[in-house]
Specification:
There is one protein chain. The chain is α/β, with parallel strands linked by helices and 360 residues long. The protein has two domains: 265 residues, 3-Layer(aba) Sandwich (Rossmann fold); 83 residues, Rossmann fold. Helices cover 37% and strands 14% of the residues. It is built from eleven helices and twelve strands. Strands 1-11-10-9-12-4 form a six-stranded mixed β-sheet, with helices on both faces. A four-stranded parallel β-sheet has the order 7-6-5-8, sandwiched between helices. It has a two-stranded antiparallel sheet with strand order 2-3. Helix 5 crosses helix 6. It comes from Cuscuta campestris.
Length: 360
């Protein structure tokens, strides 16, 4: 895959800005590209997340949620470095592995109002197995994965024009009917459930991992991965990737508080949130190493490249980390790094394929 070869000329369709949270303490070694963070203090992870992590360690993985393998690098690499994609196409219904929702099912009522966003299909799938047909998902748009959700027996209620409107409606209905509201990312169990992806990476990798690139929406996935990986190996960089026009996490880290965007771009709709979670922001502020911005053209190029290499079609949000890894490695002229990219979704809207082709 040419887009992932570290030693090639800059492509004109890439636009990259590297954002590093200003509150981090770094030890700079040989160059600006070789940055190693000091180990995070135990106090940097909240008690709630720590308790959830301990519970997750003790609780066996459900049989319905097998680990997704790291894909062998093959021609994705330029020796001596390599890129290891974590692909959703190996998982059920094109989503990435198990969800933290599995760790919440013991406290849920028989009916749940759930705003699923960062990985909507896996949330609904896992909940459907646990609780039967009494699942309600709030979301406003008509994406193809919702057909699979409905086939699982979930009732899909589409409301509002944005995720925030859908969440407000779900919270209101849950309060009125005495139900449990399940947030898609800002809950300790959800965060640590997402962190099982980090656990899989560290256990499956056959080489020393230098960096993990993670798509960022509300922040649950990257917060969970960072919470686990930084406790195991603080030298592994955790780098978030956001679209240029949906960069709520980077702006929040820059200002030291959560920032709500006036509007967000909808191309990578799986990460298009106006404001990140409170707990996810705090964890990202303490643990992650930076955020990369990429353009829509860069995302489309990564979708094309993954298809040409693996015959796997990623949705825009799923290709986000891939685009960010390339942009980062070009920016810092990285040629010998072992990189993991989280390809978080393969639920591509068929009608969007033409647009992706034109922009790639």
């Amino acid at each position: 895959m040419e887009a992932l070869r570290f030693a090639h000329t800059q492509s004109p369709h890439f636009h990259c800005r590297i954002f590093t949270p200003p509150t981090f303490n770094y030890t700079v070694k040989s160059s600006a590209a070789d940055v190693r963070r000091t180990a995070p203090r135990a106090s940097s992870i909240s008690a709630a997340v720590s308790r959830a992590a301990a519970a997750a360690e003790k609780k066996p993985r459900p049989a319905a949620s097998p680990e997704l393998p790291l894909v062998s690098p093959s021609s994705l690499t330029s020796e001596p470095g390599c890129v290891l994609p974590k692909l959703p196409s190996h998982g059920e219904n094109g989503s990435l592995g198990p969800s933290g929702i599995e760790y919440l099912t013991g406290i849920l009522s028989s009916k749940v109002y759930d705003v699923a966003f960062e990985s909507p299909l896996q949330l609904a799938t896992n909940l459907s197995r646990k609780l039967g047909n009494n699942i309600w998902i709030k979301r406003e748009d008509l994406q193809p994965q919702w057909k699979s959700v409905e086939r699982l027996g979930a009732t899909v209620v589409r409301v509002g024009d944005t995720y925030d409107e859908a969440q407000a409606c779900a919270q209101k209905r849950a309060q009125e009917e005495g139900l449990t509201f399940v947030p898609p990312f800002d809950h300790p169990h959800v965060i640590m459930g997402q962190g099982t992806v980090g656990k899989e990476i560290m256990s499956q990798a056959k080489c020393c991992i230098d960096a993990i690139f993670v798509p960022v929406g509300g922040g649950g996935l990257i917060a969970g991965i960072a919470a686990y990986v930084k406790m195991v190996d603080p030298d592994v960089k955790i780098i978030g990737v956001e679209p240029n026009n949906a960069n709520a996490m980077a702006l929040s880290l820059h200002h030291g508080r959560r920032i709500m965007l006036d509007q967000v771009g909808g191309f990578a709709d799986g990460v298009a949130v106006k404001v990140v979670g409170e707990e996810t922001f705090r964890l990202c502020r303490d643990l992650i190493d930076g955020v990369v911005f990429v353009s829509r053209d860069a995302i489309c190029a990564s979708i094309r490249d993954m298809f040409e290499e693996r015959r796997s079609i990623l949705e825009p949000a799923g290709a986000l980390a891939l685009a960010g890894a390339e942009a980062y490695c070009k920016h810092y002229n990285q040629k010998d790094q072992n990189i993991v990219v989280i390809a978080s979704g393969a639920n591509m809207n068929f009608d969007r394929l033409g647009q992706v082709t034109d922009l790639s």
